[in-house]
């Protein structure tokens, strides 16, 4: 499996009502991404739980994701390989 990181989705647990120090029993941490804006292809998911500089837990390439070609952001636009790996939604305007 060759490749590199295409993005990192971080949520610092402290300061948001969660503290790693308070998690004495097994817990589930759920992460929701509302969009997964990547080009069609095969991707691998890794996760790491880090508190400060301390590694708590993690798995590398724990899940394989297949992204199929489809309309981009609900529009009739289909991305091409030359459009890049990460596809962002936005708008242009002339000022």
Task: Give the helix/strand layout.
Blueprint: E1 41-51, E2 54-67
Antiparallel strand pairs: 1-2
Query: In percent, how much strand structure appears in the residues?
Result: 25-35%
Low-confidence stretches: none
* Overall pLDDT metric: 77
In sequence order, what are the helices and strands, one letter per element?
EE
Distance between the termini: 45 Å
What structural class results from the helix and strand content?
A: mainly beta
What's the story with the biggest beta sheet?
2 strands, antiparallel
Number of helices: 0
What Rg do the Cα atoms give? 17 Å
Helix percentage: under 10%
Q: Shape from CA axes?
A: elongated
How is the largest sheet built, in terms of strand order? 1-2
Number of strands: 2
Question: What's the quick description here?
Answer:
The protein has 95 residues and is an all-beta fold. It has strands at residues 41-51, 54-67. It has a two-stranded antiparallel sheet.
Describe this structure in words.
- The structure is a single chain.
- Strands 1-2 form a two-stranded antiparallel ribbon.
- The model has no long low-confidence stretch (mean pLDDT 77).
- It has a domain at 33-83.
- A hairpin with a 2-residue loop joins strand 1 (41-51) and strand 2 (54-67).
- Helix content is 0%, strand content 26%.
- It contains no helices and two strands.
- The termini are far apart.
- By secondary structure, it is an all-beta fold.
- The protein has strands at 41-51, 54-67.
